Amino acid sequence: MRAGLPEPHKYEPTLPGPVFAAHYHLPGDPTGPYTYGRDENPTWTHLERAIGELESPGDPAQTVVFASGMAAISAVALSQLRAGDAVVFPDDGYQALPLLHEQLTAYGVEVRTAPTGGDAQRKVLAGAKLLWIETPSNPGLDVCDIRALVREAHSGGALVAVDNTLATPLGQRPLALGADFSVASDTKGMTGHGDVLLGHVSTGDPALATAVRRWRKVVGAIPGPMEAWLAHRSLATLQLRHDRQCATALTLAHALRERPEVSGVRYPGLPDDPSHAVASRQMRRYGSVVSFTLPDREQAERFLDGLRLVDDATSFGGVRSTAERRGRWGGDAVPEGFVRFSVGAEDPEDLVADVLRSLDALGFTGNGAAD
Ligand SMILES: *Cc1c(COP(=O)(O)O)cnc(C)c1O
Description:
By secondary structure, the chain is α/β, with parallel strands linked by helices. Helix content is 33%, strand content 15%.
């Protein structure tokens, strides 16, 4: 709520407005922090402090904000990996990871992949420089044991980065679990209104932070001051939004379980979900995304069409619910009827009623076909 706010000064605003500056007054030697707008900006500084406090309360991590989640992910990968290094990615992670995979391969980096579930990445760790974890994975919602993977990776000399987008720091704190980097797309739950693209990297290691900051300067993947300010403003409601969204996600998951046309409901917060045991040891909240499968593509499309409170749209973590048939993108190993549902902050009863009404309209007869 108060994360990253400056000390109170009489007649000053609580959260200073965005600073639009390409350069700053700079007579004499350039010793201060604010010299040129690609290097530093006071609006970023407030946001970086806020996110650092959330990622690592009491011992704030250094945080570097970026223009998008992919800019943050690329900054870690490309600032740390050199030709001849090996990196381990999940094979069921975010959609753009395969593009990064291709790019790293072209630079002479060996990219190995394994599934998130069952901590399968540990089997391909030998000699790697960096382990990339995404848990819960997107969109499959498998979970791996961060502590166990960190232990194994560190014993072999590998750094560990966790994509914490889905959980947010309120759901899970990768740095406290031993990871070297916590990385996220703040486009999703962190900002939560579907109107900003942003990303961040947090790390407890000043040398790693310097390398990531240097990469931002080299590539120039910097956030606009307006986006950074909107993000900081949105953080004031992060806990409210996230608590509501996570609670409704669990309610929705239970409701979907009761439906004959719905199979494969996944939500790490369901006590008998395959991810729950590991998730409950490292997560404090289980996120706002629920996934499930309808019998086929046509029924999934009709279900999405029939929803009134839910936009058929990609992305997740926003205050307005969205859902999509994930198979339309290709690339994810999911059935044609697979739906990724991002639970928003609507009235829970209204939202569940909307979902059940749209399922009812499919006219499922229980024999595997709609009539
Ligand atoms: C959306 C997303 C990204 C990419 O973030 P952008 O802000 O779209 O660049 C990375 N990882 C995960 C898990 C995501 O959901």
